[in-house]
Amino acid sequence: MAEKVIREGSWICPHCQTKNRGAKENCDACGAVRGNVQFIYEEDGQAVTDAAEKAKATAGPDWICAFCGGSNAFDRQRCQSCSAARSDGTLREVKDATVKGGEGSAKRQYSPHATVAPDVRIEPVKVPLPIWFKAGCAVVVLGFMALMGLQCLSFEDTMTVAGKEWRRSIQVMQYQTFREGAWRGELPAGAREIGRQEKVRSYRDVLIGYKTVQETYTEQEQAGTKKVKKGVRDLGNGRFEELWEDEPVYRDVEKTRTVQKPQYRQEPVYDTWIEFEVDRWKDIEKATAQGTTDEPRWPETGASPHPRDVVGEKREGAREEKYKVTLKSDKDGKEYQVEELDNKPLSYEAFQRLKPGDKHKVIISGLGLVKDIPGLAAGRP
């Protein structure tokens, strides 16, 4: 059921900025006639309950004098300031004053004289971070910047090749026979069947009847009503009319009901399981050779140079090689282990060119890492 509530607003005197009750036609502080001011709606404003005051509020909007700009009550026939006739004046507009919030609610109104304007964005309060957290972050950032700076620095030094190491490996594979099992239709290519049997592959539900049971469920029931403000209207005379409606309020109620619940049994589903043999290549070992000579070699694997898909046959798979050179500074005797140049593994060609006893100009980073050996440019991969 809709209900109307008349609520008194307010206005701010343009001469002395005093805030006055909406029904006041003269400023309480300076006595100025309120004129064509902006009326302000306030949710906590005084509700008009007196019959005579209600009659004034609903009689009609004020009219503005065409000669002096004074504001006069709807039933006043002449201007209270200059006595000009009402017929020459202009009626204030009766207008909607609702600011939509959520689900039809009416929110507080604002005017140009309000403390907070509607277009002012109120920023959330920012909680400052703890000093220890800021200090920790600063240390991490500064440390990272320092490392990057040192890495970017470069120093030139003359070094002697003091030692070399190499390691090479080959994956060895063998063609073997495997005994496995799979469901019918899922055998791999080249499989040779050696036996089969029926086995349970899965289960399915089979309806066997119904059982009467009590089931609990939740249902919403109306528990009452609540008043919801649906709109606000500026009556143009310092008062505002609020429109309220009853809306239902619900609650969750737990109930029980009798239902027929289906009953199932699990029935096995059979399929054919097939045992089979299949031949395939398998990694069996990794052959490795290593040393400190200038002539790296690949290890012996015993694999056939021309392998066939025959059980027992061996073949070579993936190959790996790793090289490391030890350089010794002629200036301070410090040793450097070189396994990479330009973020790439040291190549076989570069390894061969770095002969023991040879001297090379070397570029060192601020972190003490070998960045480059300019004389090896032609030997890089």
Q: Count of helical segments?
A: 3
Shape: elongated
- Please compute the radius of gyration using only Cα atoms: 47 Å
Mean pLDDT: 87
What is the terminal-to-terminal distance?
Answer: 88 Å
What is the structural class?
A: mainly beta
SSE order: EEEHEEEEHEEEEEEEHEE
Q: Portion of residues in helices? A: under 10%
Query: Main sheet?
Result: 9 strands, antiparallel
How many DSSP-defined strands?
Answer: 16
Strand content: over 45%
Account of the protein in words:
The longest helix has 22 residues, at about 130-150. About 10% of the residues lie in helices and about 45% in strands. It is built from 3 helices and 16 strands. The radius of gyration is 47 Å and the shape is elongated. The protein has helices spanning about 50-60, 130-150, 350-355, and strands at about 5-10, 10, 20, 65, 70, 90, 95, 155-185, 190-235, 240-290, 315-330, 335-340, 340, 345, 360-365, 370. The model is unreliable at about 100-125 (pLDDT under 50). Among the domains are: about 1-125, no CATH class; about 155-170 and about 285-300 and about 315-380, OB fold (Dihydrolipoamide Acetyltransferase, E2P), CATH 2.40.50.
Reconstruct the topology from this structure:
Layout: E1 3-8, E2 10-12, E3 19-21, H1 51-59, E4 63-64, E5 71-72, E6 90-91, E7 95-96, H2 131-152, E8 154-183, E9 192-234, E10 239-291, E11 314-329, E12 335-338, E13 340-341, E14 344-345, H3 348-353, E15 359-365, E16 370-372
